[in-house]
Design goal:
This protein is an all-alpha fold. 80% of the residues lie in helices and 2% in strands. The protein has one domain (3-264).
């Protein structure tokens, strides 16, 4: 498991900017669409509203949220399933206490905590309850980050409209001075453009990416919970593997797992016809 750049997010943003610039240059000059006052109004206003809406502790996590959105941590569900199956084999062979040594090097605190609860002889219902509560709090923390970017996506077009009103007022005040009408009109229109672009190209897609990554992590932790409880119940490692593979979409299963699943379905088909 390692960290690398999320190509989908990075390429999407670059492609969006390149195509927009290309479209602008095709119809005119790029400098026409640059207005510093509009950036101050839209971006400044959006940042101010988000700061009012959220606590400083929540805002301090913006950097780590952007890192999550634009990088991808390799968490292969096949590796997690293989690990849980190996734990099931070890506990059947050497007893649950043998797992205590195996979990020392685990870098996943959630899985480590779950297996430790099993080793300590905790009741199955209590283990499920403890891990589900932890999962619920994790989901809640993730939702705060998603909400920050959703809110920014809602505020940006609104500040675009505020910029439009400011530009129109400036234009009407100087209606008798033709030189100033153009500048006011440019601010009026460009501010709305900036607001809509920031919302639809940056803030809302980041919120969507954070939602997707949160869903992936939660699914993986649900797999862990089922695996941990299966180990505690002393289930056959093969049954544990089949149960956990059912959580994962077929296109995410490793080749060997997919082939095993296809053989299993084929056998079930034969059995049902007999």
């Amino acid at each position: 498991m390692g960290m690398h750049m999320d190509l989908g997010s990075v390429l999407g943003l670059i492609l969006g900017v390149v195509l927009l610039v290309w479209g602008i240059v095709t119809n005119g000059e790029l400098i026409t669409y640059w207005d510093f006052a509009s950036i101050l109004i839209t971006l400044g206003g959006t940042i101010a509203s988000v700061m009012i809406n959220f606590s400083m502790k929540q805002l301090a996590k913006t950097g780590s949220l952007l890192k999550i959105a634009f990088t991808s941590e390799e968490k292969d569900p096949n590796e997690v399933i293989d690990l849980l199956v190996s734990f099931a084999e070890s506990s059947r062979r050497d007893g649950l206490l043998a797992l205590e040594e195996k979990i020392q090097d685990l870098d996943d605190d959630f899985l480590k905590k779950g297996i430790q609860l099993v080793v300590d002889g905790t009741d199955a219902d209590l283990i499920r309850s403890i891990l589900q509560i932890e999962l619920a709090f994790l989901e809640e923390r993730h939702q705060v980050g998603q909400k920050m970017f959703d809110q920014a996506g809602a505020y940006a077009p609104a500040y675009g409209m505020i910029g439009t009103l400011i530009g129109l007022i400036a234009m009407l005040v100087d209606l008798d001075d033709p030189d100033k009408i153009g500048a006011g009109m440019a601010t009026a229109l460009i501010t709305t453009l900036y607001g809509v672009l920031l919302s639809n190209l940056v803030f809302l897609p980041i919120a969507g990416k954070l939602r997707d990554k949160s869903a992936e992590e939660i699914l993986l932790k649900e797999v862990m919970i089922e695996g941990i409880l299966s180990i505690q119940a002393g289930e056959n490692p093969r049954i544990v593997e089949e149960k956990l593979r059912a959580f994962i979409p077929a296109n995410q299963l490793s080749t060997s797992s997919r082939e095993a699943q296809e053989r299993e379905f084929a056998q079930e088909g034969v059995t049902s016809r007999v």
